[in-house]
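Annotated sample (chain length 839).
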Amino acid sequence: MDVSHLLDGLNEDQRQAVASPLGSALVLAGAGSGKTRVLVHRVAWLIQVEGASPHSILAVTFTNKAAAEMRSRIETLLGLPGGAMWLGTFHGLAHRLLRIHWREAGLPQSFQILDSEDQARVLRKVLKALDLDETRWIPREILWFINAQKDEGHRPKHIKDDGDPTRRQLIKIYQAYEEACQRAGVVDFAELLLRAFELWRDNPALLQHYRTRFQHVLVDEFQDTNAIQYKWLMLLAKPDGMPFVVGDDDQCLAAGTQVTMGDGAKRAIESIVPGDSVLSNYGRGDLRPARVTECFVKRRQGQLVCVHLRSGTVVKSTPEHVHFAGYVLGETPQTYFLYLMHKEGVGYRLGTSQVYTEGQARPMVGFKQRALQEHADALWIVRTHTSENEARIDEVLTSLRFGLPTCPFVPRKGKARNGFVHDAAHLGRIFSSLDTLVSAERLLEEVGLDIDRPHHQPQGRNSNRRNIVITLCGDRRGGAPMHRISVVGVSLKDRAVLEAMGLSVRAAKAGAPSWRFETVRADFGELMSIARSIRERLDGRYVLQGHMLERSLPFIAAASIRSGMVMVVDSGRFDVVERIEYESYDAEVYDINVERTHNFIAGGVVTHNSIYRWRGARVENLNQYRRDFPKAVLYKLEQNYRSTGTILKAANALIANNAGRLGKTLWTSGEDGERIRLYAAFNERDEADFVVNRIREWAGAEAGKVSGRLRHNMRFVMLLPKSLDPSARGRRMPIPTSISARNCTAFAWNRLSEKALTMTCMFQWINNLSFDQSPRMAVPAGTLGETTRGVLAPKMLLLDGSLPGVTPVSYPSVSSPPDAPQRKRSMASNVSVPVPCSA
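Output written by the structure step:
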């Protein structure tokens, strides 16, 4: 059975995780590492390769939308319906379980889930029966207490009052509320998972039945699980089970990063200890000391993101580290973008836009305006450019390479009416005929972006877009920082859900049908707990930002920062990001948690503290998983390049000479590998003979099957112009007539004469694969053959000098003319290498 399609399009790290042996596994996913694809392909792998029955698979996500998308993609991969799998949210799966085993759960067969009005009515009856005044015992606060206890897996009998009369009364209300629900045969939302956990815990035979059935348990966003969710999963998985869980890798800063202390002094982050006082932003640029409560350190082997600001400030962090950065009118310079836009129910598309600062009636961030016009749901900045033409060239090449359309989601308005962009039917036909999701994922992974964390999400306008806006330091109560959460909508059903949670909802404007929920908390962890509960009930999405100066900046992973964004520096002003670079790193990385404000100044930039703390997540669950499953294999999705160190040093030296490049440094954790050998031939035939001889040395009898197809591993093949063909044929080694240049690592050119221009291009290759047909790019006519021109970038610049890891070596393979040795020495000592520019 051919299962190559299950691994096609995955990088090496993803393949290892997808094809891991049966057993427990923990996958730590870095920013933009494709964790969703790993889960989807893992399920397909289990069914098609490991022979698992769809009935044996239970997969958990945190939103119904994510669950529906996962099911659809698994069905597409397998070509089979996925109804036999249990795939959904924690509460959705618990509800399904209770419907099947209502009798064992102590529920009536037709039990109902309380809506907001019913839940409030039940609680008010309880308060009245207990003769308690609602102005003193506020229903929404009581419901919050009850839900929080259920999320921890606590019944009233498990809670201690610690001698507090108020807490004692709350426990009594909780008990009476439970009894009232039991008599009525109803459950609230928080009850679903707790009752499902108790169902398995108290019925060993039933638990064993499901343990036998669900041999394969997969969980997304594992670090976001709360206490009862973790208990439920571990009860099902059993000590010798095979849970496959995916969680976010933790964020950290490089050793040596200078942290500004409360007194203004600078200290390396590795020297910070709990109890120290660091300078922190209390909101709106108010910099004051704050106390460090926790410190974190771990070993990190991989990439660091180096953010260079206009002032010369540089901050280095792991790709997952959360900073505050965004595009701000009046601060961001004129910048041009290639963006990826998403519209639910339609798909993904590419486009170009800009920050309008010059010559317009009013300044604007163009991609935000475009998203509003097309009713888009999310947008990512793929790359930035200094001119409109560069952005449009990038759009064309990226569209061809990834198969993504550039036409709008909705018909364009204007005087013209005959173009296809003005016809909704034509546009719908285009998007319905393409699988833009897979293409979008490939693109986002390549540029280090996360499909779950777009750069821009338009504000919710209807019940289909439920944004949960969370603002760090968004309010003040005296000198104390407060954090704000808000949700805006028009759906009466959504409003009822929030009210059922005990949240206060009011009209957004007098006389308007829209409503608004908003509250503040001093404890950001408590705020995030509210946000998680809202997300689970409304299928909402987070929009996180920090009110660091007079305008808020989004929470953004280091890998997602782009040129032209602004960040807040220790002088209390915005500073512009000029470029992003990557460097390899193998040492300890560090982070801290700052009390209440959850931010500090690192390397002169205001940045966020530990990812687990701001999300309200339980890093303890990741650690506990390693203890509960000590044999679990750890996979890390973070590296995207698998060439040898020597090749990448040479490639980076070439790329560094491109002034318009986009700031990516190729890297590898592998060995340096063999040194690059430079051969300077005296004519095309000599060079062709050299290449053919080298290929025969490497591949032996299989030389005729050497192929240059990309995205596969094993060595590399050098491709040259037409003169290679007769030389290869003379040795009975056929050369393909078309090649793919989509991911070439480096180019090296030598101009030997006005009539002979040849190319050496290093590709990763694998045997027994045909060359793929890739879109060809134009080069100046008359320099190369037609096929060779098809792989060249449209612009080049010259690099004169030596390359790291390059040793000039001559391999005479044919009789040389008298002056050939001298010409070879001259060439080896002064190499000219044109390098394709980034678009």
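Annotation: The chain has a mean pLDDT of 78.
Annotation: DSSP finds 23 helices and 36 strands in the chain.
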